[in-house]
Amino acid sequence: MAAIGGRLASVRYGANLIAGMGTWTLSGFVPDVQEATAFGDTVKTYVQAGIGDGGTFSFSGNYDPADTAGQVALNALANTDAELTNLYFYESTSVFWRVASGGKLIITKFGSPTFGKNALATISFEGKVSAKAMERVS
Questions:
Q1: Any residues with CB less than 8 A from the CB of 27 and at least 6 apart, and which?
Q2: What is the pLDDT of residues 68-109, one digit of tens each?
Q3: Element at 71 (helix H, strand E)
Q4: Would you tell me how many other CB atoms lie within 10 Å of the CB of residue 54?
Q5: Which residues contact 60 (CB under 8 A, 6 or more apart)?
Q6: Distance CA 134, CA 101 (A)
Q7: Which of 40, 47, 66, 138 yields a CA-CA distance of 20 to 30 A from 8?
Q8: pTM of the model
């Protein structure tokens, strides 16, 4: 089994690296599963029927107020009803995840910095995948 280290991972908004990020997570597609058990069945039966959920995403790292093409640009989208198609989650320099064609990414929690008396300031973003699932591009 091949293991992948996170050292080369990154998050990009369009072609721009979002500075300082150190963690990103995709929850994955969640199908809508319905119970289809009938009278006489002795074990519950389920089917994938209904509308699936594209999942969620999050990313976080060190706060950089000078990152005008990344952190600052994303925060500028707050209260604009923006739906993104150009947010990319890289696992290496050439392999990344993006929302599939026809889908959108909606940021649901914009970055607010967190400061500690003996730590670097951090920032985090969260959102929902809408209409399509994420896809891996290699």
A1: 55, 56, 57
A2: 999 999 999 998 999 999 999 999 999 999 999 999 999 999
A3: helix 71-75
A4: 23
A5: 21, 22, 23, 24, 122, 123, 124, 125
A6: 9
A7: 66
A8: 0.89
Handedness of CA 73, 75, 79, 82 (dihedral sign): positive
> Residue 77 is encoded by which pair of tokens?
């989208």
Identify which of 52, 60, 40 has the alpha carbon closest to the alpha carbon of residue 107: 60
Tell me the per-residue pLDDT of 15-38, one tens digit each, with 9 for 90 and over: 999 999 999 999 999 999 999 999
Q: Which of 104, 110, 103, 105 is nearest to 126 (CA)?
A: 110
Q: Strand, helix or coil at 75?
A: helix
